[in-house]
Amino acid sequence: MARQDPAVLALLPHFADPSAQGLDRLLAAVAELGSDGLAVLRRAARGSKARARRRVDVLLALGDAAPAGPADQEVRELLGARDDETRSWLVQGMKRRPRFIPDLRAIARDRDDAAWAWAVEALGELGDRGSAEVLMAHTAGQQTPFVLLDALRKLKDPIAALVFEPNLSHPEARTRVFALWGLAALGHETPIAGLVAMLEDPEVRTANSYEPGESRRAAQALCDVLGWPFEWAPEAVEATRARVRARFTEVYLATCAEALARGHFDLPKDGPANA
Q1: What is the pLDDT of residues 88-119, one digit of tens each?
Q2: Which of 154, 153, 172, 155 has its CA nearest to residue 164?
Q3: Which residues pair with 204 in a beta bridge?
Q4: Confidence band, pLDDT 50/70/90 cuts, at residue 207
Q5: Which ranges in the chain belong to alpha helices (H)?
Q6: From the CB of residue 65, how many other CB atoms can be counted at a distance below 10 Å?
Q7: Is-contact 254 180, C-beta < 8 A?
Q8: What DSSP string describes 64-75?
């Protein structure tokens, strides 16, 4: 029987706590091992998906303190191993870490990469406008994957209007909301009226299903674009309706809706005042 590694045995109990405090304690235990810490961490993570993911959390956190150090080197080794079961988890952890933008762009270029959608989402969360062309290369009108539409909405690059526009008539209400949101986030006027109309998107209940409608998502979009407070709660819709009534005249919204229906995203300079 192989002799158990005492350093690994000492580290294993620190994997048990999934909380942020537990991660801090695991980080401290790895740091106490000095130059052997990463190797012991690697051995301790073997044989358990949960421990392997926790190892990823540790590597990313260590890299936060020492970018381009040994921990980040191991991160990039994991990225290069496409069959590693923790790779998608790793890419998800990069969405708050701008230093990995070049790595995320490389993954986002390859539609066949299993972590592609996670990389696209991360680039959107990071607001990396430099990746807009990378993402646009994968768009396909109404066949564009939703994760791309959402990421491009967050990037606020004018080039994304080319994919938002065809999705204004998408059969799925959620996609239409995000197309309107993306155009409004680019500073266009008339999509605001589309979002206001979506505040009335109804719930649909049948004997076997429930579709909540997109009114709350439309409220979130309006609050994001107009700088209003928002919480994901049922009352957010009515609160947003009240702010809309206070901010915009009915004439202005009707004019915007008519222009949007004709394919115009902005009103003429001599259009009606918005309040």
Answers
A1: 999 999 999 999 999 999 999 999 999 999 99
A2: 153
A3: 211
A4: low
A5: 6-11, 20-32, 37-45, 49-65, 70-80, 87-92, 101-108, 116-126, 132-136, 146-155, 161-164, 173-185, 191-198, 215-226, 235-247, 250-261
A6: 10
A7: no
A8: HHSTTSHHHHHH
Distances (CA, A) of 44 to 83, 107, 215: 20, 28, 48
Long-range CB pairs of 110-114, under 8 A, 24+ apart, other chains included: 111/138, 113/82, 114/82, 114/87, 114/88
Q: How far apart are CA 11 and CA 183, in angstroms?
A: 51
Q: In which region does residue 271 sit, left (phi positive, over 0), alpha (psi from -120 to 50) or beta (all else)?
A: beta
Report the first-to-last Cα separation within the chain, whole angstroms.
80
Tokens of 41: 């961490």
What pLDDT was estimated at residue 1? Answer: 42
Show Cβ contacts of residue 37 under 8 Å, excluding neighbours closer than 6 positions. 30, 31
How many Å apart are CA 114 and CA 187, to the nearest integer? 34
* DSSP track, 160-218: GHHHHGGGGG-SSHHHHHHHHHHHHHTT-STHHHHHHHHTTPPPEE-SS-EE--SHHHH
pLDDT bucket at 206, cuts 50 / 70 / 90:
low
Looking at residue 275, what is its pLDDT?
Answer: 54
Task: For 109-157, write each residue's pLDDT tens digit.
Answer: 999 999 999 999 999 999 999 999 999 999 999 999 999 999 999 999 9
* Structure-derived torsion over alpha carbons of residues 59, 64, 68, 73, reported in degrees to the nearest 10: 10
- What CA–CA distance (Å, rounded) separates 133 from 105? 10
Q: CA–CA separation, 57 vs 125, rounded Å?
A: 18
